[in-house]
Amino acid sequence: MDSIHEVIKLCLTTGLMVAAPIVLTALVIGTAVSLLQTLTSIQEQTLSFVPKLLGCAFCLWLMAPWILQQFATLFETMMVKAGTFTP
Known about the structure:
Elements: H1 2-40, H2 49-82
Helix pairs in contact: 1-2
């Protein structure tokens, strides 16, 4: 029973680690654009979309090898532990 909990914990941890850089990038870019909009009194709602999209795409491109390595490690661990689960 412990191995199932370990795999669930590993899946959640890996998911958070993989998503964190992209979410933090969107957070920083969104905050910077909002600050810029406040300073310049521009009230355009769609202005922050394109910088966030480009920033997240660049972050994903930059982090892709690490993300794939994390997913491969998770997949390998799950395949190794798959035979140890009991109903």
